[in-house]
Amino acid sequence: MGEALANLKTKAKKMKRDIFVLVEVAKHPTTPIYVKLLAMFVVAYAFSPIDLIPDFIPILGYLDDMILVPLGIILVLKLMPKEVLEECRENVEKSEKVKQKNWIAGTIIILLWIGILFWIVSLFL
Predict the structure, then answer these.
(1) Burial call 71-99: b when 16+ CB within 10 Å, e when fewer
(2) 3/88: higher pLDDT
(3) C-alpha triplet 108, 109, 115: angle, nearest 5°
(4) Taking every annotated instance into account, which residue ranges of this chain make up the domain DUF1232 (predicted)?
(5) What is the C-alpha separation between 93 and 97, in angstroms, rounded?
(6) Sequence-separated (6 or more) residues with CB below 8 Å from residue 84
(7) Residue 19 and residue 22: Cα distance in Å, rounded?
(8) CB 59 within 8 A of CB 67
(9) What is the per-residue pLDDT across 5-50, written as a single tens digit (0 to 9) for each?
């Protein structure tokens, strides 16, 4: 049981690091626009408190986080040239971003979702 938990923690840390690699991918000047957009979408979804399937729904609520986010990460990483991907990984390793809690990004994403919800509500009023 202890080994399974350690393995799960290792995978979670790798996924967190890969999210920051996607941020670097989105900022890289040679990244194609469709990959930048996909990377930004995956990062926003990963940090967003709003999911396609709410977490309070038993089992399914967490499956979207355990399936959609990793699949999005894999897809973006597969679309990137190896040398650019290695450069982005090196940039993440050099920075301390992975170790920090990014409250600013979380706040921006929450405000973005609130704005979208207000816009949708205003369409129906």
Answers:
(1) ebbeebbeebeeebbeebbebbeeeeeee
(2) 88
(3) 90
(4) 35-71
(5) 9
(6) 25, 28, 30, 31
(7) 5
(8) no
(9) 677 678 777 888 888 899 999 999 999 999 999 999 898 888 777 7
**Number of H-type helices and E-type strands within the chain:** 5, 0
Joined together, the tokens standing for residue 72 give: 């999005």
Q: How far apart are CA 20 and CA 33, in angstroms?
A: 18
Return the higher-pLDDT residue of 63 and 99: 63
In tens, the pLDDT along 56-89 reads 677 777 777 788 888 999 999 999 988 889 999 8
Q: 72: closest CA among 28, 30, 26, 22? A: 22
**63 in Cβ contact with 12 (< 8 Å):** no
Segments making up each domain of the chain, as ranges: 2-124
